[in-house]
Each structure stands twice: as C-alpha cells, then as structure tokens.
Amino acid sequence: MSTKKEPGYCVECSAVATSEALFKVSGVIMLRKYCNKCLPDAEYDAR
Length: 47
Ligand SMILES: [Zn+2]
Description:
- By secondary structure, the protein is an all-beta fold.
- Helices cover 0% and strands 30% of the residues.
- Bound molecules: zinc ion.
C-alpha cells in the first residue's frame, strides 16, 4: 500500500495530469485533472 498521491491523468487527453481544477455543480464539488495543454480550456461542461 502506498500513501503517495498519484498524479492521475488528464480527463481530456489522458496525458499525465499536472493540475487539478474544482468545479461546483449543483452544490457538489467536482475535481477534474488536466495537463498543461488542456488546463487553459478547462471548463465544466454545464450551462
Ligand atoms: Zn490534456
């Protein structure tokens, strides 16, 4: 077992994620991970 936090993968392109973004949707906090490339375009798809 490891307590080390895994970086995870970008939700957009499956590259190794470097950043996490929080989105509040209907009172629920959603955490999504992005790489450098996708982060500027990161938006939760809800209108
Ligand atoms: Zn990406």
